[in-house]
Amino acid sequence: MDGTGENAVTASGRDPAQCGLHRYVQLVAAALGADLNGSRYGWSSEATAYLPLPQRMPGNDDHRLALVWDEKSGWSVGVEIDDDFLVLASYSEDIVPAPRVVAAFVHNVVVDGHVPAVLSGDYRRSEVLLRLAAYAPTGPDAQTAMLPPHSH
Question: Which sign, positive or negative, has the C-alpha torsion 140, 143, 146, 152?
Answer without folding.
Answer: negative
